[in-house]
Records
---
Amino acid sequence: MPGGAGDAVLRLLHLILGQFGLSPFLLFVHVLILMSNPTVVFDPYATADLRNFVQAIVNNHNVAVTRRAEWYPVAFFLRDVNREVLGGLLGNIWAA
């Protein structure tokens, strides 16, 4: 029911979290992690659905924290003297 005690609690939670730069989404994720005893699993052949799921979580968090949805890709490469690629770093810059 709008305007009830639940709304007041949510408003207070937003105010408190905002003082520490935390989003409600981030708090929710932390609570889930603490409650579920997670493990890290290496999966170099993760499906596109799984990769998209994780990317959506990161995107939602970034928008919640920055209040901006702009991003752009970045790519850094390590090359030898012959310009052969030895390695690199790929990623995204958020809200720049």
---
Amino acid sequence: MEKDIGKIKKNDFTDIIIRLDDFGGRPGVTIREFVTGDRYTGFTKAGVKIHAADFPKFKEMIDSIDDKDLQTDENSGSEEKPLPKAAPKGQKTLDKEEMPDY
């Protein structure tokens, strides 16, 4: 069973494909890069498989992201800022133990 759900253009040569499959007899959602080039056209090793048993947790995590969380500051422009080496004063950093477990 393979069913393509959709794709997102990454650049001129690469798309991100989301599909349902049962590779290895284990159904799940696969999110993988697909390249189109002169030497090779097909899926790359870059990607992830979310097994069916883990999908409800994955979906809950994705659904917890608010559109506002993805908006950038209007003054920041299109340049990416480097990540700070340490958390700014007053900002708490999550340890693995503090990460929400879905």
---
Amino acid sequence: MRCIHDLAARNEHLLGEGENFSASIDNTRLALEVSVIHTYARRIVAMLRQRDPLSERVHLSKTQFALYGLASVLITALRRIGRARPASPDVLKRDA
């Protein structure tokens, strides 16, 4: 059991390092997907730190799956609305 909790703690650390990864992705749809997967992973790791996967449930329910996914999409989309976008290559060529 301690081994699983230790692995969960290490994964939690790695997920913390990747917290802002989706913000660095230019493609919005891909960034939203990455953000949702990251949110699911954080929730499951949190469950693994508290529960024994051999004797307790460590899955997201359908409702949790939907709510965490929707919340992640909304938060990531709102963050992306106000960010500055780099000029496209076509605009750079035209201005040169």
---
Amino acid sequence: MTKDKTVTMSRELLPCPFCGCQMRIETGRDTGHRMYGDHPQKCVFPRNSITAMESSDHPDALTRLIEDWNTRADPIVEADGMGEAVTFQDRVKPWMLACFGAEILADCQERNHRFLEEALELVQACGATESEAHQLVDYVYGREIGDPAQEVGGVMVTLAALCLSHDLDMHEAGETELERIWTKVEQIRAKQAAKPNMSPLPGVYPDRASQPAPVSVVLPERAPEPTTAEVVDPDCNYENGLADGWNNCLDKVKELNQ
């Protein structure tokens, strides 16, 4: 026997706060009120899973379910002109371009350093010691290199877990910081420019190709200078030429090394 079921598509029902998809409520005689959404893979809610539910025993159950969902679902995503959800990552990009430009945005080494710096500052603020940080660096770099996409997932999960343990809201903190740094573009540029260049420490890398880090080269020994007898001996001319060429190369390297 087919169970009676109605579908509620209320305009008062706010979209999913994580992906922006439209939500619906299905009401069954024996199942109560169940909320669903066509969540994409990137959403925290699995596609077509039960997002929220309420028993239909109470006469105000449907109204209460909608009100409870809307209270929790203050959207943290925006939509572009095509109706697509704009993620937090999408909204960080314009700030990066405005603050540092496309070159620094695309600089993977710089981004590695800045992420590591912020991660260390976070765990320091949450009570981790310098000794613990050094031990973990040795531990991680003693293992095989992971897959970047999987490691990003691990970062997201462990960041969420850290925020839960410290009673922090990671989404609210991200929104607050993004709003704050939009007002500090000039100050952040000045701070970045004042830091050591060509270093893991905060700095800029505008001339990486034309200004390599200075390297001191240890030169090998020079070839012996020919004696007077060797200079006039035809059989020694070939060896003398090799020695002169070798020493001339060393002189040139020494000149470049100064």
